[in-house]
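Hey, sorry to bother you again with one of my protein questions. A protein chain has come my way and I'm curious about its shape. I'm sending you its amino acid sequence along with the backbone structure tokens. I owe you a coffee for this, so here goes:
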Amino acid sequence: MHFYTYDGSFEGLLSVIFEVYEHKAWPDKIEKQGQEQPGIFALTHHVLTDETKASRVWKGLQNKLSESACNDLYKAYLWEQPGFEMLIFRYVELVFASKVNIEENFAEDCVRQISHISRQIFREKHRMEAFIRFQKTADGLFYATISPDFNVLPLLKEHFQKRYADQPWLIYDVKRRYGLHYDLENADFIYLEEANIHAKTGALPANILSEKEPLYETLWQTYFHHVNIPERNNKKLHLRHMPVRYWKYLTEKQPRTR
């Protein structure tokens, strides 16, 4: 058995695929270093991330797949569910082994799964774009926390950079402990050693918020309350479009203080 480990990055996973083909040692399992549980008869290979090798694999895939299919492959990496590395490898193996385009070959399990995952990621990305609520800090930074089911933060960059181009902001993923920071010029990923936020709601402490922030939150809650028409409440539909797991980050779902 051949067991491969990598640093958890997308480039690292592509580097593993390069090594597999270079040495013709097909993997039985691929996992992030630190999460592996190899069997006693397994040969473990830890692959260091190599940007050149990763780029060669990616360019090879781009030559055989459409841009949409390449994006779907990346979304499978963001999916993060157990076994996603081997799913990606099986898809890549099929791509390189086939003389024809495999994107719509839904007779193959890996093709069907990648397509299904792409739809899941799209829904989660769309919900994050709709449900993110910013708090303004005393130094003028607009801050928001998220905890999505999948690692969709990289997919939010373009949307928020265009929509909020005139204000500095930070979107922080509390589950994965990294964020996306925009400084009016560039949006970059950052890692915080210690995030001073509420464990359940992700809210910032009152002492670092702008003085007017509580007022704006109250105004938004009041608006949300008054536009609601009790006679037209449809709880089932409401929960379908706004699942309960997102409520802790929504200003309008927090108890009113005024």
Summary: Residues 30 and 36 are 8 Å apart (CA to CA). The chain has two domains: 2-123, 132-253. The chain has eight helices and eight strands.
